[in-house]
Amino acid sequence: MNNNHYCVIMAGGVGSRFWPISRHDRPKQFLDVLGTGKSFLRTTFERFANIIPVENVFVATNTAYRDMVLAEIPELKPENVLCEPLGRNTAPCIAYAAMRIRSINPDAVMVATPSDHLILNEIHFCEVIQQCLDFVSDKQESLLTIGLQPTRPATGYGYIQVNKHVAEGKFNKAKTFTEKPNRELANIFVSSGEYFWNSGIFVWRVDTILRAFEEHQPETYQLLDSISEHYGTPTEQEAIDRIYPECRGISVDYGIMERSSNVWVRCSDLGWSDIGTWGSLYQYASKDDNGNTYSADTFTFDTENCVIKTPEGKVAVIEGLKDYIVVDTPDVLMVCPKSAEQNIKRYIETVKFAKGDKHV
Amino acid sequence: MNNNHYCVIMAGGVGSRFWPISRHDRPKQFLDVLGTGKSFLRTTFERFANIIPVENVFVATNTAYRDMVLAEIPELKPENVLCEPLGRNTAPCIAYAAMRIRSINPDAVMVATPSDHLILNEIHFCEVIQQCLDFVSDKQESLLTIGLQPTRPATGYGYIQVNKHVAEGKFNKAKTFTEKPNRELANIFVSSGEYFWNSGIFVWRVDTILRAFEEHQPETYQLLDSISEHYGTPTEQEAIDRIYPECRGISVDYGIMERSSNVWVRCSDLGWSDIGTWGSLYQYASKDDNGNTYSADTFTFDTENCVIKTPEGKVAVIEGLKDYIVVDTPDVLMVCPKSAEQNIKRYIETVKFAKGDKHV
Fold first, then answer.
1. pLDDT < 70 stretches in chain A
2. Interface test with B, best of A21, A315, A336 (most B CBs within 10 A)
């Protein structure tokens, strides 16, 4: 493994779309939603531990989740947990991590990755990341993102159009970015063959991404650069807590990638899903002959294509549901059609309004 | 109140149709299914305490439920809980109670009643019972049952045809009995105006009902009469435990009433329901504008005509269900269409087969 290679796992989200399983005090990345025996965060860490030295792995998270991160990844050096005092989307998070890594190794090449995605083709993934690290070591000025061959006209993802479509396994220059297109546009994108899903996994040299910040997010760059003498010292957290709230909350896609001309896409087939919703969980979960996926001790009658999630030891008897989500937790029961899962945010607001923060 | 008047509340059933709320170790009569703040058993006791001296009130139950009966009705003398070592349907239960009461007062007039029915017109009910007690004190040879004006062609009840229909509030001679007719027959019964629902509430002199047992259920009569020296003594339970298993399990309707020629029906309007199923609970429960009845902290969206029952403190969010039953308990979740509630016995068998007795 190359000691110049670094990885930042972004684990600060609250994943409200998996409510009532995910909660503010235990969001999705800390859960074993797929029933694999490991949390998303742990799985992501183990995937990168194959190719990046463990001492070069950082996890950026909310201060509130610091202990949960260390509990999930005891191998992690405590100082490698980067704590955001509050969420400011991915751009400030990546800039902070890049500054911290630059303070250790100005020649560093880094991967920035979400902590809560599914990747089925793990061996291929490691090969791709390795090729990406090599690519940006060679083409030093490039900002590289991993693009994925769309398998359906999803409306919840970002799409990247490439300059000219070349075979899978190649690097393509990015041309346009489109966040969450409508169904019609998504259909056109997918059939064109020129568009790829944006995985949210980025690879670049730290100096390259920081130059991009200096150009496209100068306030954030200056704020984070102004505390450069604190990085890696006991006063880092205090300094971050002071300046972080002033950083502009914006995604790295919108704040940097869409504004840059040196963006490349590594188009890959990784068996990827962001498992962003109960519906996408359903897609990847193992199902019975009637298309149901459920926890142990669930008994179904005349029930098809349902996601049924219950706590360990609980018996569930379900009859007459088609295409529903049934999620039971000790304090919240949710039953809704799969087609209504975009309403979960509304459920959370309703419960929060009536009952306060206790159940959200 | 007349000291010759006695009451036997039959509280031995397991009420599996209210699973998963009702369980073997806490059946329906001990539950506050309607959310009134009182169990069915307690409500039944209080209703009779208006007209029968408390020391003349007996509760017949399974030995396993003895302590629960006394906890629900602390006013009850412990020796007034008649414990059946096992269920043998209503005929042996009533014969045992009648023998016990005869040993105290051979002139006794008794009411025998289920413990788990709903009666809305309580004042009228007390008047009716009083009239019934007077009727059988006068017409000493009669076996009297309370009949109810059918409000729909229910197929789950017993029907009694009267000799000649006279106005409500009168006593009619019974002509025929029909248990659980099919829908077609039930329709004919209801439109004829000659049929009444059998409430399972009986009034008679103890000597009259015991003579009927001697004639129509002679083995049961002889078994229970053979231990007559034990009634009211410390050896009663031991004697009952010995002979009770030998009694024939049969309902008093089928074993006595249908075979007797001296049966009368007091046709009444009591606002009665046996609340035998989740569907009948739904009928009597208070509902929101969309026809849903639910526990506190339940939030519904696009949901109509549902029964939603959750434990105290639990939040439920339900979307897109029409005519469903959702019952959540700490260890069992059940979701089924109201039209499928007759399948609950099947659910119980399935869960019992897979998980043993723990959840049933």
1. 165-169
2. A315
Contact residues, chain B, for A20 at CB < 8 Å: 315, 317
- What are the counts of helices (DSSP H) followed by strands (DSSP E) for chain B? 11, 17
The predicted complex's ipTM stands at 0.82
Cβ-Cβ contacts under 8 Å, A355 against chain B: 297, 315
Q: What distance in Å separates the CA atoms of residue B291 and residue B282, rounded to the nearest whole number?
A: 9
Phi, psi of B12 (to 5 degrees): -105, -5
User: Is A315 touching B (CB cutoff 8 A)?
Assistant: yes
> Cα–Cα distance between B6 and B87 in angstroms, integer?
22
Instruction: Pick the residue from chain A with its C-alpha nearest to B323.
Output: A320
Task: List the one residue out of B114, B54, B42 whose CA is nearest residue B272.
Answer: B114
User: What local confidence, expressed as pLDDT, does residue A165 receive?
Assistant: 61
Backbone angle region of A232, left / alpha / beta, with phi > 0 → left and psi within -120 to 50 → alpha:
left
pLDDT digits (tens, 9 = 90+) for B204-229: 999 999 999 999 999 999 999 999 99
Q: Are B20 and B334 in contact (CB under 8 A)?
A: yes
Give dist(CA A335, CA A333) in Å, integer: 7
Q: Which residues on neighbouring strands pair with residue B110, listed in sequence order? A: B6, B204
* pTM for this prediction: 0.84
Rounded to whole angstroms, the Cα distance separating B271 from B151 reads 10
How far apart are the C-alpha atoms of B147 and B174, rounded to whole Å?
10
> Which of B315, B331, B346, B355 to mutate to probe the A interface, most A CBs <10 Å?
B315
- The verdict on a CB contact (< 8 Å) between B355 and A314 is no
Of the candidates B10, B65, B80, the residue with the CA atom closest to the CA atom of residue B232: B80
Residues 6+ apart with CB under 8 A from B67: none
A297 closest CB neighbour out of B297, B334, B355: B355
- Kindly determine whether residue A335 and residue B355, on different chains, have CB atoms separated by under 8 Å: no
For the record, the structure tokens of B279 come out as 């569907």
A293, A356, A328: which is closest to A20 by C-alpha? A328
Shortest CA distance from A337: residue in chain B: B320
Q: Say if A36 is an interface residue toward chain B (CB within 8 Å).
A: no
What are B182's two structure tokens?
Answer: 């099919």
Beta bridge partners of B149: none
What single letter denotes the amino acid at residue B68? Answer: M
Please give the C-alpha separations between residue A72 and each of A329, B1, B83, B310, in angstroms, as whole numbers: 22, 72, 56, 34
- B-chain residues near A337 (CB < 8 A): 319-320
